[in-house]
Amino acid sequence: MAATRIALFASGLAVLLLLVQGSPPGPVVQCRSGNTNCTVTNGYGAFPDRSTCHVAAVAYPSTEQELLFAVSGATAKQQHMKAVTRYSHSIPKLSCPGGPSGQGLVISTQRLNRSVRVDMATSRMTFEAGITLRQLLDAAAARGLALPHSPYWQGVTLGGLLSTGSHGSSLFGKGSAVHEYVVGMRLVVPSPVPVKGYFAKIVNLGEDDPDLLAAKVSLGVLGVISQVTLQLEPMFKRSITHRVIGDVGFEQTISSYAVTTYYGDISWFPSQGRVVYRDDIKVPITTKGKGENDLLVFRAQSSIDVASARASEELLELTGNAGGKCVLSRSQVDTQIANGMGLKNNDGGLSDFTGYPVIGNQSDMQSSGSCLRSAEDNLLTACGFDPRFAGSFYHQTAISIPFTTVADFIADVKKLRDAHSNALCGTELYFGFFMRFLRNSTAYLGKTDDVVEIDITYYRSRDPKRPRLYEDVLEEIEQMALFKYHGLPHWGKNRNVGFLNIKNKLGAKLDKFVSAMQKYDSKGLFSSDWTDAVLGLRGKEVMVQGDGCALEGLCICSTDDHCAPKQGYYCRSGQVYEQARVCRKIKSVEADGLPWSSSYRSHSL
């Protein structure tokens, strides 16, 4: 019966897809009339609160002078602004302007995508902020240069990845955050008085300018990044081997692994009791090998296959079949491991992956995203998360925990896993608990310690009022990471709850950042309710209260109505981290005790 329903769904979808044009991701800004009366979204088609961002207009500057003109015009009108990138892959609402809905301006950096200059003597290159990571890596490689570290997804832009503190994985040298390799930046910022006829000015920050520590990771609230100068290095190669072991006691080895493996990362599949270590080292450019990193999930995929997989997952959620998710996740992880986790040897073998080690140029090994270059085929193939068809739709919890406490955090997760053996299988359909390593940063909004960044991706219903399987377990893990272990969020990911208490966690560094905000944008034209709430400014709050708000991470439940009592989900304490407040499926309220009073508010997070 289930198979029949999924087949009918897929057949109907195939007909629908023939009516839609274009396989690369569609535009994130849609306008009703030219470049006016527009809506803005992100690459996944939905912000955390699912609200629609309406703006008066979009500007597409193609030069720094045109960017100056756009910022000046909006400043003269006291119009709120935000920069928006080509694919807009930040999950939070960073690209939606503040001020009255429908009256803001978004400034797209899509056409600011060029290499500006190169200094071969110092291995430094300057790029416009709208250049995508893939374009940047190719431009540097053409000069025999390499970006030392980068995110794993090549669809981000330079300005966007810097504004959200994006990174790779390494404790070596300055670490894996791209902003650590910024040695210069040009910003276009508002000016309250005319400068050469413009209500905007260009700010040029050198590597010794203290304001660069604010601009490196800025959430886009200082102005629009125009150009960035990066410290690169001569091209080198990487040698990668994946190693699979059991997870007994693995948490005790994370620190030693991180300090001995240059680009290592860890994928933990808790329900399967398996850990995949990526043994990843630098090797000389003369080393034989022309491998490529082409992660399976970032390749162009059959939209019918992706939609069918999504329909299967929705059916398992609807029927409460967590065991079915475990079967699917085991099969999927086995397939990924057998295929080198997406690595290609490119040695003429019968398959893409023919064995370890896989060796290739840094520019070919550090990121993935070939689905961005998929052919125009009426959406028959596309990126799996493309919102134009019913494919992947998920939440991401991405939180960094200091090395000093990460073993204790994992031990607590194991306690929950052992109590609910099927609870975490759903995360294993999305790479499980994915761990990368970062150094502490001098950037004001950078990391405050050497940390393990843990990314957990999991099912999100298209109905915001529908709870997930084992809703409570993932909520407890999220709150445990944030509050018991004082984790910091990734600025470009996470649900609203991830950004609670940022002001206390960053302390004096946030005060310095706010001072820079006031210096460069005294009227708050690049701020919004969202960024004010995240940074604890102007009395704005991150939490959004209302019926079902905890299901989407818009709040931490304090009443049963914040969950889904009509579907059997009630607000209860955590099981391992008792201070947590989570939405738990309860078969009999009478057996469990009375629902919480609507007046219950106290919890010590």
Fold and architecture overview:
There is one protein chain. This protein has 605 residues and is of the alpha+beta class. The protein has 3 domains: 115-235, Uridine Diphospho-n-acetylenolpyruvylglucosamine Reductase, domain 3 (2-Layer Sandwich), CATH 3.30.465.10; 237-502, Vanillyl-alcohol Oxidase, Chain A, domain 3, CATH 3.40.462; 557-605, no CATH class. 25% of the residues lie in helices and 24% in strands. It is built from 15 helices and 26 strands. The strands form 7 sheets. Strands 19-13-15-14-22-23-21-24 form an 8-stranded antiparallel beta sheet. A hairpin with a 7-residue loop joins strand 25 (569-573) and strand 26 (581-585). Helix 1 packs antiparallel against helix 7 (303-319). The protein starts with a helix and ends in a 13-residue tail after the last helix. 51% of the residues are buried.
In short:
This protein is of the alpha+beta class. It has 15 helices and 26 strands. The strands form seven sheets. It has an eight-stranded antiparallel β-sheet. A five-stranded mixed β-sheet has the order 1-2-3-5-4, with helices on one face. The chain has a five-stranded antiparallel β-sheet with strand order 6-7-11-9-10.
